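Hello Y.,

Per our agreement to keep a running log of every chain we model this quarter, I'm adding this entry. I've kept the format consistent with earlier entries: sequence first, then predicted structure.
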Amino acid sequence: MVDKMPLRVFLEVVERRLAECSADELRDILRAMAWRVHLADRQAFLAQLGVGEVVVPPSQTVWEHLLSDIDDLALEIQRAMDSAGEWEDWHGWDYEDEETNLGPYERFVEPLSLLFERTAVAFDSGEVGLALEAYRKLFTLLGLKGDYGWEIRLSDLHGVDNRETISRYLRAVYETTPPDRRPQALYDQMREARLWLGPFERPMLDDLVRVSPHPLPGLEAFLADWIDFLRAQSGTDADVWLREAVRMAGGTAGLEALARAEGRTRPRVYLDWFAALEEEGKYAEVLRAAQEALESLPPDLPIRAGIADHLCSAAAALGDPERFLFGRWEAFRAKPTLARLLDLWEAVPTIQERIAWMERAVKHVGGVSRRGRKAAVAPSLYVEPDGLERPAVPDHNLCAHARLLACDLEAAHRPVVNKPVLGWSTRSSDQALIVSFLLVLLSHRSLEELPPNLASLWSWSLLATSLGFWSYGRLGEGEEGLLGRLNAAYAECLAWGRESGRLDLDEQREQAYMAWCLDVARRRVVAIVGNQHRSSYGKAAALTVACAEVLQLRGEEGSAREWVEGIRDRFPRHRAFQAQLRSALQQSG
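Predicted structure for the entry above:
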């Protein structure tokens, strides 16, 4: 640290320097000092020079001196960047746990917000050229990032609507660019603007139309040029903007023409076409068009599921259950997921027919799994965040659910017989599901009548094989209410299977399945407790008591006691597990 300089030494050095300088040199020094004075300190600096109170004449308009004010703030920000290291030394620790990334730039948020507001007023008042230049300067400031990562983002500003701001800027680009250069200029700036909006948003041409009460000049001629330009571009942005332009220029008929001409390479245009028809209430046309699209597109294209969803919506509106079921099947074929399997289940009117459709689903899933999922993707397009183009690869859990809902116990049981007993909380949890289902079946109780530990095991297995413990609360496509729907399907399946005899087991098969469940449970408990996986002691205890509950319901009281005692005696020193086991037994009553 540098020692503090005494006032006497400081003044002596100043006097010596003044004596060395000519009048012109002193003027240069003062000018340099003036340039470094902060905006808020300018009046005080002038007072030190002996200048009295300076009255600044009021601006004639909000945007008067706008560009120079932006330049002034730019100098302030640059100085803050230059001294960021010093700021970091003094304040860096205070910001370690802060969500903000502003650091020393936090004091510039308010003046920047005000400058954006003034620029918006200039734009709204017809000063489009001024607004464009101001926006360019302002966005340059937002792009500044110092050595320590501090920066100001558009989302940090107060009272500034991000989308409106970008729409004004892009409209200013549009209005100030000659018509022959507009498509390229607007395309470049719209793509850059995505960085300011965020990864899942993009500006649209319609935003430029809506941001001002005045018509967008030359729109009709521009749309024709814009469409021609976008056809020559590749990528998702160009595809989205082309479909928007076609809708703006030609309405529903324009979308229909584009779909028929380029639907195989631009399959999302089908969805836009269907949405436009739905807005007009033309569900019969949606039905026909969706059928046509499904016939046209490759059979393994994932977006077929979205097309089938529109077909189902139209069929539901028209009261056509046969087409509705067809749509549900096509959606499942394109994207075999648990949610779509349940859609198919619920679309079939009778339980007996549902079992048959589940058998069909099992064959389809097996075929997809054997081939491997290499779904066709439309050329030159990227996958959008909504996942319509993303293939769905059926996993072991989906296969297990489909086989159980088809009442095919042997087919469901066979793949999990020799699986490892650990890993029930991973994405391959089918063994947990099969064990739970067999215990429920062997209990001879409905899902509403299960004892507490068996009920918990059943609910846990449904969660593990549907939403999963790895989802962290994020629901995927069609997953809202999935657990309730899945449980309801199993309740219907169990009731029908028992009533029809499809799930009836002779004594020998019941004993064999019960013995297998106990063997898996024993090995799982030993693996968990023996290896001291303490976080899973509760699961091991619940599984132990769930098996005992089933034995009791089957009238095997002695076997139930022996089972629990055998587990308890195996781990006499594991007090944490013993406590969990006591808790599970108390819950069971």
